[in-house]
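Lab notes, practical 5.
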Amino acid sequence: MRQVTATPPWAQRFAVLIARPRSVTRRHEAIVFVVQTTIPQVLAAAVRRDPASPLLTFYDDASGDRTELSGATLDNWVSKTANLLVDGLGLGSGDTAAVTLPPHWQTAAILLGVFSAGVGADTRDPGAADVLFTAPGQDTTTNASDRYATGLLPFAMPLREVPSGFADFVLEVRQFGDYFPGQPVAAGDVALDGRTHADALAAATHRAAELKITPGSRVLIDATARPDPIDWLLAPLIAGASTVLCAHLDRAKLDARAESEKVTLVVA
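Output from the prediction step:
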């Protein structure tokens, strides 16, 4: 017989077959749905599903940068960031990381690392944050004692000149391990701009439906038009899609890029 557990309508679900080896026929198999209620669970499911294929591909048409990250590679950067926060800074649940960076693959790694560490991310008001991630030249006021800057440079190059009072994120994060054992994170913990993990995933699921992002799709996203992390990061992730994120998108290159990257949906 088939048995299906009740699940919230917004939750991402995937089927897991439970069967006793050699003794259960197909008509006896049980199907249950595993519910991801936190962002780290959603990321882990995406990496398990296909660790080797591109999960996030980033273009910057102003610099010519193209960076492709498989699920496993992105997860390594996320783990390094989470380890920096937990082991390096001693942060965890109840703490806040200000992330005042544009859509970028490094921003994705930082945000997902923040979520994995159980820390809340604030992309709007960095004033009261415990740690700050930003770019040089940004006019950011914060009380955070720990401040990291990244130039978002091609090949994850370090800054040539680090602003006074800041550490270079790229140099610092590389000192930490690329395996993060996990931190207790609950659906009711704050994740993004005051939203809990459950609320952020609900919003992302809703946006994925509105934008017609479906499982297995390859989505090209105009970073300028979609600066909200719910749109460019979490919606494709919870939908089971991979992302081609384009900063300073040159529209003249759109058709050729969509073809070369096997894009199935353009979100501009």
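Observations recorded by the TA: The chain has two domains: 1-35, 40-267. The chain has a mean pLDDT of 90.
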